[in-house]
Amino acid sequence: MKRNASTWLCITCLLFFLAGYGGGTETSSNSASSATQGGNPPKTVELKLSNVLPDDNPTTQALQFFADRVKEKTNGTVEIKLFNNSQLGGQREAMEGMQVGSMEMAMVSAGPAAQFVPTLNVLSLLRARNICLKPSTGKRARS
């Protein structure tokens, strides 16, 4: 259940990132209407998504589903290209790549991400709290 929740949390974060992504697309309503009226076709935006997990991992499969849905919902104007199995480096390299602009998205756990965004350390504290409280709430603790 926890793994499933973390997968959906990551997908939600990716959706928020994608919703805020505006680079490379035309923003004026005139250009969008001219594309549908026989003008130039809309530009395709390709986003790189780095992932350290193998292809058969459920999280990777969820990312592939996400990429397919984005392509479907945007009529092919936004395409997410997955790079699994650490093809673009580890999680730290992915975060650095996003900083310099060589990739747009990455599947990163809270630990490496907290090195770049210190407020994410609160996620590690919540996990540590659950681990510390677990022994005190078990069957032996109540007897």
What are the key terms here?
single chain; 143 residues; mainly alpha; three-stranded parallel sheet; 3 strands
As laid out across the biggest beta sheet, the strand order is 2-1-3
What about the largest sheet?
3 strands, parallel
Rg of Cα set = 20 Å
Oligomer type: single chain
The secondary-structure element order is HHEHEHEHHH
Tally of contiguous helical segments: 7
**N- and C-termini, Cα separation:** 28 Å
Approximate strand percentage: 5-15%
Shape: globular
Mean pLDDT: 75
**Which range best describes the helical content: under 10%, 10-25%, 25-40%, 40-55%, 55-70% or over 70%?**
40-55%
- By secondary-structure content and strand pairing, the structural class works out as mainly alpha
Number of strands: 3
Low-confidence stretches: 22-35
Report a brief summary of the structure.
Helices cover 52% and strands 10% of the residues.
Write the SSE topology.
Blueprint: H1 2-20, H2 29-36, E1 45-50, H3 58-73, E2 78-83, H4 91-100, E3 105-106, H5 110-114, H6 121-133, H7 139-142
Parallel strand pairs: 1-2, 1-3
What does this structure look like?
This protein is mainly alpha-helical. It is built from 7 helices and 3 strands; from the N terminus they run H-H-E-H-E-H-E-H-H-H. It has helices at 2-20, 29-36, 58-73, 91-100, 110-114, 121-133, 139-142; strands at residues 45-50, 78-83, 105-106. It is globular, with a radius of gyration of 20 Å. It starts with a helix and ends with a helix.
